[in-house]
Every structure is written in C-alpha cells, then in structure tokens.
Amino acid sequence: MSIVRLIYVTVKPDQVKEAVALWKNHCAPLMIKQPGCLSEKLLECVDAPGEFISYSEWDSQANIDVYRASENHSEIQKHSRGLQGGKATVKRYEVK
C-alpha cells in the first residue's frame, strides 16, 4: 500500500514564477531520485494564486523516513524556505 505525502505551501503572489522554476529545476529532480518515491508533482491552485501542494507518492513510510534524513531533503528545504510566506503543512494519506 503506497503513501501519498502532501505538503501545502503558500508563497507571495510575486514569487509564483520563482517557486515553480525552483521546484521544477531543483526540488523535483532531487525528490524523484529517492528510493521509494513513485511519483512527484507540484499542484498550483487555480483559485488562490501562490498556493501550492507538493504531491509525492511513496512505496513505504520507511523510505519517506530515509528521504527526510537525507542531504537531498535538507537541500530542498534550503531552497524552498526562502519562498514560503509561512510554514509548510505536511499530511500523509494511505492509498486504499
């Protein structure tokens, strides 16, 4: 059973293009290489400019834990924290 990890992030409206470029060019390539990461997508809210969801699907919680302790995770956090208008919210869901 896979686990979907959703990270809700809001950036300032003038940072939207920068946030999308950062995700596509730096964050997504690092995440998708992680063992157990089955898919990764960035969702942009149509109704609320600057609102995003990082959607990733994983094969296990163990691989999420390994990723969260990795240098790649630290690198992604370093890049993304400069853009966030507030703290990111992370939620996990099991695929049934």
Structure commentary:
- By secondary structure, the chain is α+β, with helices and mostly antiparallel strands.
- The protein has one domain: Alpha-Beta Plaits (2-Layer Sandwich).
- Helices cover 38% and strands 31% of the residues.
- It is built from three helices and four strands, in the order E-H-E-E-H-H-E.
- The chain has helices spanning 16-32, 61-68, 71-81, and strands at residues 3-10, 37-44, 51-58, 89-94.
- The chain has a four-stranded antiparallel sheet with strand order 2-3-1-4.
- A hairpin with a 6-residue loop joins strand 2 (37-44) and strand 3 (51-58).
- The mean pLDDT is 88.
Brief sketch in words of this structure:
With 96 residues, this protein is an alpha+beta fold. It has three helices and four strands, in the order βαββααβ.
Reconstruct the topology from this structure.
Elements: E1 3-10, H1 16-32, E2 37-44, E3 51-58, H2 61-68, H3 71-81, E4 89-94
The major beta sheet can be summarized as: 4 strands, antiparallel
Order of helices and strands: EHEEHHE
How many angstroms separate the termini? 7 Å
- The CATH topology: Alpha-Beta Plaits
Q: What count of structural domains?
A: 1
* Secondary structural class: alpha+beta
Give the beta-strand count.
4
Oligomer: single chain
Strand content: 25-35%
The CATH C-level class name: Alpha Beta
Count, helices = 3
Global outline: globular
Q: What is the gyration radius calculated from CA atoms?
A: 13 Å
| Weakly predicted, low-confidence segments | none
CATH architecture: 2-Layer Sandwich
Mean of all residue-level pLDDT scores = 88
Helical amount among residues, as a percent range? 25-40%
The neighbouring-strand order within the major sheet is 2-3-1-4
